[in-house]
Amino acid sequence: MNLEVGDVLVCRGKSTLSKLIMKVTNGTWSHSALYTEVWGQPSIIEAQQNGVNFKMYDVWLKKYGYEYDVFRYNKDFDEKELIIRAFSKCGETKYDFLTFFVKIPFR
């Protein structure tokens, strides 16, 4: 499947943290990322432990080696607005360990 701007990649990682997230949430996925393009180059915007980050797609794939499925929004949307909103979150929103390791297990 060719990736398109706005695709959400739901990922399964191989790291200890990814495995813990899947175990605690009783899920098959541990992470998600937003596919976009910057200057025509495939890119990813995602939340990691240090906050929301931008990475080139090939660097992201090589660094994390995620297995992923693609979810595509089936309605029209403004790609430029999506990119602006996603980039506005970069550098913010640290990873919420409290929710995953304290709140969810006690639900």
List keywords for this structure.
single chain, 107 residues, globular, 30% strand
How is this structure best described in words?
Strand 2 and strand 3 (41-48) form a beta hairpin. It contains 4 helices and 5 strands, in the order E-H-E-E-E-H-E-H-H. It is α+β, with helices and mostly antiparallel strands. 33% of the residues lie in helices and 30% in strands. The protein has helices at 16-25, 57-64, 79-88, 97-103; strands spanning 8-12, 31-38, 41-48, 51-56, 67-71.
Mean pLDDT over the residues: 83
Low-confidence parts: none
| Largest β sheet strand count, sense and barrel closure | 5 strands, antiparallel
Give me the side-by-side strand order of the main sheet.
Answer: 4-3-2-1-5
Helix/strand-derived category reads: alpha+beta
Radius of gyration over alpha carbons?
14 Å
In short:
The protein is of the alpha+beta class and 107 residues long. It has helices spanning 16-25, 57-64, 79-88, 97-103, and strands spanning 8-12, 31-38, 41-48, 51-56, 67-71.
Helix and strand layout, with pairings?
Elements: E1 8-12, H1 16-25, E2 31-38, E3 41-48, E4 51-56, H2 57-64, E5 67-71, H3 79-88, H4 97-103
Antiparallel strand pairs: 1-2, 1-5, 2-3, 3-4
